[in-house]
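Customer escalation, tier 2.

The customer says the design service returned an amino acid string that "doesn't look like it belongs to this structure." They asked us to rerun it and document both sides in this ticket. The original structure tokens are below, unchanged.
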């Protein structure tokens, strides 16, 4: 996005002024989706849309800084990462009960989160650090940065559910996995499951790939060839997608 400025400064033209001037306010997400950054709803990818109506809870000047920083992330980071930032900013507002980034607000959020959820606080801290890097920290007191820069915060626990075979959020057991396939086959035979849905489920079951990869498949990715096995067989070429930031 080309940042529009007042008198050569590094601050964006206020949202209301842009609307009145009828300026083009479109941006392209990292995943290639066009969105109007002055609207509250941003479609960032095939599967991810974020709603920024909560920004009205910030003071207007702070809301402008937050919106512009979110545009930066939307254009340069994955849709999933941008969505997570938005989610944690909303959490900050809900917990802090404030309308800006303040020492009290961050202390309130820190006190409300258990150790395992400290990564959410780290996400918000990372966001305001990016605001500072972009020169959008003029409406946030330096004391907030001095306070939060001192903290050592725990990161998000990764892979715990899988490694511990958590019955609620962990992987399916071999029995469950087999039952899913058998039940799907029966439903398909009965006509209760469409060909499209059964094929999609079978692809997930056979490949274990992420939903973004399956959603990105095109007709050209399917072939009937003897190139890999010596005998003609059906082959699907699963596209690679950018890892979630």
């Amino acid at each position: 996005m080309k940042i529009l400025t007042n008198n050569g400064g590094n601050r964006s033209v206020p949202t209301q002024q842009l609307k009145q001037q009828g300026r083009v306010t479109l941006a392209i997400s990292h995943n290639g989706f066009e969105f109007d950054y002055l609207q509250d709803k941003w479609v960032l990818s095939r599967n991810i849309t974020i709603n920024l109506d909560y920004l009205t809870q910030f003071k207007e000047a702070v809301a402008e800084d937050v919106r512009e920083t979110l545009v930066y992330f939307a254009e340069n980071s994955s849709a999933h990462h941008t969505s997570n930032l938005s989610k944690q900013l909303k959490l900050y507002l809900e917990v802090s009960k404030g309308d800006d980034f303040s020492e009290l607000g961050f202390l309130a959020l820190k006190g409300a989160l258990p150790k395992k959820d400290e990564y959410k606080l780290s996400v918000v801290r990372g966001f305001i650090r990016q605001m500072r890097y972009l020169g959008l920290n003029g409406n946030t007191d330096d004391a907030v940065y001095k306070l939060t820069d001192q903290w050592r915060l725990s990161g998000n626990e990764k892979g715990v559910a899988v490694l511990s075979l958590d019955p609620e959020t962990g992987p399916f057991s071999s029995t469950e996995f087999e039952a899913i396939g058998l039940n799907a086959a029966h439903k398909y035979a009965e006509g209760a499951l469409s060909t499209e849905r059964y094929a999609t489920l079978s692809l997930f079951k056979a490949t274990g790939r992420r939903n973004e990869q399956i959603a990105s498949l095109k007709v050209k990715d399917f072939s009937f060839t003897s190139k890999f096995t010596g005998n003609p067989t059906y082959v699907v070429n699963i596209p690679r997608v950018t890892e979630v930031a």
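Tier 2 assessment: The sequence is consistent with the input. Residues 1-11 have pLDDT under 50 and may be disordered. The chain has three domains: 26-150, 167-208, 217-244. Sent an explanation to the customer and offered a walkthrough call.
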